[in-house]
Design a protein that fits this description.
Rossmann fold, single chain, 13 helices, seven-stranded mixed β-sheet, 42% helix, 323 residues, alpha/beta
């Protein structure tokens, strides 16, 4: 018998075995755990990118979504639940979710879709070659808070007092506030800090913002507050307070200035990392990547309602102007 005929018969015989055919057609789908506050637009971009990479939810992929709905304290229990299933990979959005995942497992790969300064807050020690089970994408750098304050000073006449609205439960909070204080000192600005106490405390925090009578407000980078973005931007409009926000999702609800990384783009890149992890790539081979481009969005309609004339040079620098 010729070698080619023999190999053909062998292949046909193996393929005809019921267990072989069953394995080929019924491979167990990969299972992914996903931790976030809400299904914000970046989550949809993440899912779309996964589909483009050949992962179909309900077929070869099962994603277990766990949304904290504005309560950071839910993340530890969610992470423990997902680890117990177990999932093949944990995906986390934001520092509180990432820390919960890190505490829940030292073996399951953890992919950070977007978070703050992961080194300074102790999430990851080595960006180039992650030495634990975490990798992912960083949405912030140390210059962002100073850039936001500089933009406010340029846009708001006679700017003197700026209130930072921050979430104390976010490990990034202390580092960002200190960075903003240092930048404010160089700009001759006074900083007040108003802290939220969970999603339920947003209303009380906004009342305190009103009492501080700031010339402008800087929203800290935090996914809990992002889940309450409509309430926050409505408050700023009603009280005629100029504000600058960290995520472009605030643009859709009337945010005045947005300056930061495009989280949807980071999550598309995270989907590519997930594809590689599910195919067996080691976490240590996937360096943590930092955002390198940041978008400036200006809403001139909101500015007009506040009686604020946006300087032409800011409009020229803007990546998007909403009229």
């Amino acid at each position: 018998m010729k070698r080619r005929e023999f190999l053909g018969m062998l292949a046909a015989g193996v393929a005809a075995r019921p267990d072989f055919a069953f394995a080929q057609q019924n491979q167990a789908p990969k299972r992914v755990g996903f931790l976030a506050h809400q299904p914000h637009p970046p989550v949809q971009r993440f899912r779309e990118k996964l589909r483009a990479l050949g992962w179909t939810e309900g077929k070869n992929l099962i994603v277990e979504y766990r949304y904290a709905e504005g309560r950071d304290d839910r993340f530890p229990a969610f992470a423990a639940e997902l680890v117990a299933m177990p999932v093949d990979v944990l995906v986390a959005w934001g520092s509180p979710a990432a820390f919960a995942a890190k505490r829940a497992t030292t073996t399951i790969p953890i992919l950070i879709g977007a978070a703050g300064d992961v080194v300074n807050i102790g999430l990851i020690s080595n960006l180039a070659r992650p030495d634990a089970n975490l990798t992912g994408f960083v949405a912030l750098n140390v210059e962002l808070e100073s850039k936001r304050l500089e933009l406010l000073k340029e846009a708001v006449p006679h700017l003197s007092r700026v209130t930072i609205l921050a979430n104390p439960a976010n490990p990034l909070n202390q580092f960002n506030v200190e960075t903003a204080r240092q930048a404010a000192g160089k700009l001759g600005l006074t900083i007040d800090v108003v802290e939220t106490q969970g999603a339920a405390g947003i209303e009380n925090a906004l009342t305190k913002v009103k009492e501080t009578r700031p010339d402008a407000v800087l929203l800290a980078s935090d996914t809990l507050m992002l889940s309450k973005r409509k309430e926050i931007t409505d408050f700023m409009a009603e009280n005629r307070i100029p504000a600058i926000y960290p995520f472009n999702e605030y643009a859709g609800v009337g945010g005045l200035f947005i300056y930061g990384a495009n989280i949807s783009v980071l999550f598309e890149r995270a989907a590519e990392y997930l594809d590689r992890l599910l195919k067996g790539e080691k976490v240590g081979n996937l360096p943590v990547q930092q955002a390198t481009t940041f978008e400036l969005i200006v809403n001139t309609k909101t500015a007009a309602a506040l009686g604020l004339a946006v300087p032409p040079n800011i409009l020229l620098r803007a990546d998007e102007v909403i009229e």
